[in-house]
Amino acid sequence: MHTDEIIIPLKETRIAASAKHTLIILQKDDYQNEVAQKTLGGIAKALGLNFENDIELFLFHKENPTNIASSLGNFKKVLIFGVNPKAIGLQMDAKIYKIFSFEAFSLLVAHPVTKIAEDIKTKQILWKILQTMYGLV
């Protein structure tokens, strides 16, 4: 699993292109929670993804916003959990649980993973949207 460290606020950070098709962006603090890690693993498995081979993970440091917008096109799917898109350089008003389609990728913004793990209704909403995003329905 690859993570990028954010060094300078608002500095552009590049995430290298790879064979991985899905980028997951979440708060570093959220990922350190065991429940969040289990939930992400469950999401990957349900989507038929191998966490190590198919998913690039970017841990966002809330005290150091960064611009990674130019790297998002390196992936087919971008899932943002609990991070304001503007904090990573996306100048858009993203509605939560709505799929945004761009020329090179699709993007989804959701609650923090720990909140999703705690709320069955939120989990169900996310699953329904992810099934559509990944063409499983």
Can you describe what's shown?
By secondary structure, the protein is α/β, with parallel strands linked by helices. The protein has one domain (22-133): Uracil-DNA glycosylase-like domain (Uracil-DNA Glycosylase, subunit E, 3-Layer(aba) Sandwich), CATH 3.40.470.10. Helix content is 30%, strand content 18%.
Secondary structure layout:
Blueprint: E1 22-27, H1 28-31, H2 34-46, H3 51-54, E2 55-60, E3 77-81, E4 99-101, E5 106-110, H4 113-118, H5 120-133
Parallel strand pairs: 1-2, 1-3, 3-5
Antiparallel strand pairs: 4-5
Structural class: alpha/beta
For the CA atoms, what is the radius of gyration? 14 Å
User: How many helices?
Assistant: 5
Give the amount of beta strand, in percent. 15-25%
Helix/strand order, N-terminal first: EHHHEEEEHH
Compute the separation of the termini in Å: 29 Å
How many runs of DSSP E, i.e. beta strands? 5
CATH topology: Uracil-DNA Glycosylase, subunit E
Summed over residues and divided by their number, the pLDDT gives a mean of 87
The general outline is globular
Spans of at least 5 consecutive residues with low confidence: 1-10
> How many distinct domains?
1
Share of helix, binned: 25-40%
CATH top level is Alpha Beta
